Amino acid sequence: MTEKEINELVAAGEMLPLMEEFYTIQGEGFHKGTAAYFIRIGGCDVGCHWCDVKESWNAKLHPPTGVEQIVENAVKHSKTVVVTGGEPLTWDMTRLTGGLKEKGATIHIETSGAYPLSGIWDWICLSPKKIKLPTEEIYGVANELKMIIFNKHDFQFAEEQAAKVNEDCILYLQPEWSNREKMMPLIVEYVMQNPKWKVSLQTHKYLNIP
Question: What is the pTM of this model?
Fold first, then answer.
């Protein structure tokens, strides 16, 4: 297959730049503690300076992989599948989610929402970033809003984003891992004063699992 043909398949969502895939425990947000198969798609131009998966940014570093293969690998391990990145909505998710649905999977996505929503999702975790804001569409369908708190100014940004999501969306504040000791007391105090919010922790890092 030529490079041009591969690029065309990637553009159509029939192949995706697969960074890694693994079976583990969801560590964050509403579904923490749930066994799930993670599919990490390469490619992201949002560029958060504190991102802990910077190696996902350059899609060219990750081999284009056929959607059928990704689906088969996932459902062998779990019927709960989490698609993350990078920024997965950089790519057309229609064929991936369609294939997973045909196999009876429940599909979650973790996204900044910076690109148009594609695919069929059972749970949408929206984690907006200041650098590249979400599309208006995704605010109305997000199931949870996960705001990463790196400094005090992020509380204001969190409130701005919370004002845009639907009324059923669950609101989480999560400390950025490298600054957690400084920000955690502030998050606890903030949630106690503003109980519409909940605290989210990266429990997988405390448990030392992927």
Answer: 0.93
